[in-house]
Structure formats: structure tokens, C-alpha cells
Design goal:
The protein is mainly alpha-helical. 57% of the residues lie in helices and 12% in strands.
Length: 165
């Protein structure tokens, strides 16, 4: 069985990330690596089956722009959520929005859904085909506009072409 360069690279990156996570969760204890190495290999194997590696090109400029975008949106969202929590009367209007995505199927859609879940005020609750279900704290917020901005950043970072909706 011949392994592709993308598969080997994905295996190494995922193993390194999970090993770093294990090290952080166990405070670097040496006696935890017996169980940790088996757990890491199992998790990497499962991740490779659920999300097979595909050759992708990450634009360094796109990655930098995405990082700045994510930082600014996180800060803005955190301030918004704090403001809502500190107001004497809660004016939350939660809602579920279904948004058709323009990213091609694959890692881009998954990254977008996870990114939106990490931003305050939104939570990805479903991703089926081209449709993303988002739980939002404020139904009146311009959710689709924000999703389009994040979608564009992900596409630029991964060198993907956006499809028509």
C-alpha cells in the first residue's frame, strides 16, 4: 500500500497536535505516555478515516489575514456577549439560521463551521452538504453577512474557489 505525501503529512501533523494536547492535559507527566501514545494513535487513525487528507495549499498571506480576522471577531464577539450579560435586561433573541455555503465540500466547510463555533454568539449545530445550521444569540444580527466574511477568509487561506449559491 503506497501512502501519499498528503497522508504522511496529515498523520505527522495530527500526531504532533494530539501529542501536544496530551502533554498539556497531563501536565507533561512521563508516566502518562503509555496510555497517551495508544490514545493518540487511535485518535489519529480515526481522524484520518473521518476526514481523509487532501492536498491543500495554505496561503501564508491568507493564513495571516484569517488569524487577524479571527482575533478581531473574537474580541468583538466577546465584547458583545459581555455587554449583553451586563445589561440589566437581557435582550437575547436566540435563533437557528440555515445558511447555504459557497465553499466546496471538504476541509474548508469543516474549518468554517468550527471557526464560527469558536466565535462568541454563534454555534454551529449542523453541517449537511451545502447547508450550515447556526445557533445565534441575536436573531436580528447580520449572521449571513458574517458567515460570508468568514467563508471568504477560509477560501483565501486554503486557495479554494467559492461556488455560486
Amino acid at each position: 500500500m503506497k501512502l501519499s505525501v498528503a497522508a504522511v503529512r496529515a498523520f505527522l501533523w495530527r500526531s504532533a497536535l494530539l501529542a501536544a494536547l496530551w502533554w498539556a492535559l497531563t501536565d507533561g507527566r512521563a508516566d502518562s505516555w503509555g496510555v497517551g501514545s495508544v490514545s493518540i494513535l487511535a485518535a489519529v487513525s480515526l481522524s484520518l478515516r473521518l476526514l481523509p487528507p487532501v492536498p491543500t495549499t495554505v496561503s501564508r498571506i491568507g493564513l495571516l489575514r484569517f488569524a487577524v480576522f479571527f482575533f478581531v471577531q473574537s474580541l468583538r464577539g466577546g465584547i458583545q456577549v459581555a455587554w449583553l450579560a451586563l445589561r440589566p435586561r437581557f435582550s437575547l433573541r436566540p435563533a437557528i439560521h440555515e445558511i447555504p455555503l459557497r465553499l466546496p465540500e471538504g476541509i474548508g466547510r469543516v474549518l468554517l463551521a468550527n471557526t464560527l463555533s469558536l466565535l462568541p454568539g454563534t454555534l454551529s449545530v449542523g453541517l449537511e452538504g451545502r447547508r450550515l445550521c447556526l445557533h445565534v444569540l441575536d436573531a436580528a444580527a447580520p449572521t449571513e453577512v458574517e458567515v460570508r466574511r468568514a467563508e471568504t477568509r477560509v477560501a483565501h487561506m486554503l486557495g479554494l474557489k467559492l461556488e455560486e449559491t
